[in-house]
Amino acid sequence: MLTSYIPVLVQIVFAIAFVVIALSFSVLLGKSGRRNPVKDSPYECGMLPIGSQQPRFSVKFYVAAMLFILFDLEIVFMYPWAVSFREFIKHQDLTILWSMVSFIGVVTVGYIYAIKKGVLNWQR
Predict the structure, then answer these.
(1) Which tens digits make up the pLDDT trace of 11-38?
(2) CA proximity to 78, closest of 59, 51, 105, 53
(3) Cα separation of 74 and 103, whole Å?
(4) Which distant-in-sequence residues (6+ apart) come within 8 Å of 119 by Cβ?
(5) Which of these, 33, 44, 65, 73, has the minimum number of CB atoms within 10 Å of its CB?
(6) For the CA atoms of 110, 111, 112, 115, what is the dihedral angle to 10 degrees?
């Protein structure tokens, strides 16, 4: 049973050897750059790094992103169902339709709740 792990062990040894050799050649043959203040300063898309490091974002952006993911997943679940709906109807009765109606109902309740809470209102 231990012999079945030999190819995995050989691959691990080759991977470690490759990393060690590549890093060794990089250190030995690579040019060491001279340090200066311009090269050591952070580069921010051509802008001078002035001000705070991380700007504060409103929670509204994250909530909007989560709502997008929620409703995007709804479509992801509905698309395969809609494609194979006729095939399901041939083999079953309308229970598959009512299951999708209940799913849409639950998501609609969540959407109405988000609207009532003012999550999609950007004028706060």
Answers:
(1) 999 999 999 999 998 888 877 767 778 7
(2) 105
(3) 9
(4) 60, 63, 64, 67
(5) 33
(6) 120
Is the separation of the CB atoms in 96 and 85 below 8 Å? yes
Residue 40 has pLDDT above 90, yes or no: no
Give the integer Cα–Cα distance in Å for 121 and 107. Answer: 19
- Let me know whether 65 and 28 are in one domain: no
Co-location of 35 and 64 in the same domain: no
Taking alpha carbons only, the member of 52, 103, 113, 97 closest to residue 76 is 103
Q: Please state, as a whole number, how many other Cβ atoms lie within 10 Å of the Cβ of residue 59.
A: 8
Residue 79 lies in a domain: yes
Global pTM?
Answer: 0.46
Domain assignment present for 110: yes
Q: What is the count of structural domains for the chain? A: 2
